[in-house]
Design goal:
Blueprint (H helix, E strand, L loop, with lengths): L5 H4 L13 H21 L3 H12 L10 H4 L7 H7 L2 H11 L4 H8 L21 H15 L11 H10 L7 H11 L3 H7 L1
Pfam family, one: HD_5
Protein name: HD domain-containing protein
Length: 197
């Protein structure tokens, strides 16, 4: 039986008071955590690694709290200036979580979850295997859940369209082998998504 990491277990509570407007972000993060855990499990990661990834997934968007509802829940596509602010949320969230005593491995995952396989993401401009595996896993779960969920400025994509989008980013945004596994794992969520349509 695997032993849990006590340090991670003690960080399962909310880091701070969460305002009502953040509820949709929190729900998204829980879904991302569930998808990321399944992907990490099928990838063969151990219990403690999975626990770390799940914790990081739950708080990967925590930095959006600093941006406010007007930006996070904007009912329209963001302007270039607004996107510049939005791109700061991984670093803000990672800094918050570091200050509250999160493991540095989790902090690095949160900081890197918008990096891309081709190095054209945001954060440090990391590429390929320099990106923490947990961040790569969360990125796939994050994009899949985001595009298959209604947003204030657009309707959700169908599962098929979401898969086409992910495939189009093969070796651009995503690790190719991890992407193939993710498509198989995420297909198990198709009945839930179709039922919600």
């Amino acid at each position: 039986m695997h032993s849990a990491s006590p340090h991670v277990v003690t960080l399962t509570a909310r880091p701070t008071r969460i305002p009502p407007w953040y509820a949709e972000v929190e729900e998204h993060s829980e879904r991302v955590a569930s998808l990321a855990d399944r992907l990490a499990q099928y990838y063969g990661l151990g219990h403690e690694q999975r626990q770390l990834i799940v914790w990081a997934a739950r708080w990967h968007d925590y930095g959006k709290l600093a941006l406010g509802p007007g930006l996070v829940n904007a009912p329209r596509p963001l302007s270039n200036a607004e996107w510049a602010l939005m791109r700061r949320h991984p670093r803000i969230g990672a800094t918050y979580c570091q200050r509250m005593g999160a493991p540095m491995a989790a902090v690095r995952i949160i900081d890197a979850h918008h990096e891309r396989w081709d190095g054209r993401g945001y954060g440090e401009g990391l590429a390929r295997y320099a990106i923490p595996l947990g961040a790569q896993i969360i990125a796939l779960a994050d994009v899949f859940d985001a595009v298959t969920t209604d947003r204030p400025y657009r309707r959700a994509l169908s599962v098929g369209a979401a898969f086409d989008l992910l495939r189009s980013e093969r070796e651009h945004a995503f690790h190719p082998d991890l992407l193939d596994l993710a498509l198989n794992i995420f297909s198990m969520s198709a009945p839930r998504l179709c039922a919600m349509a």
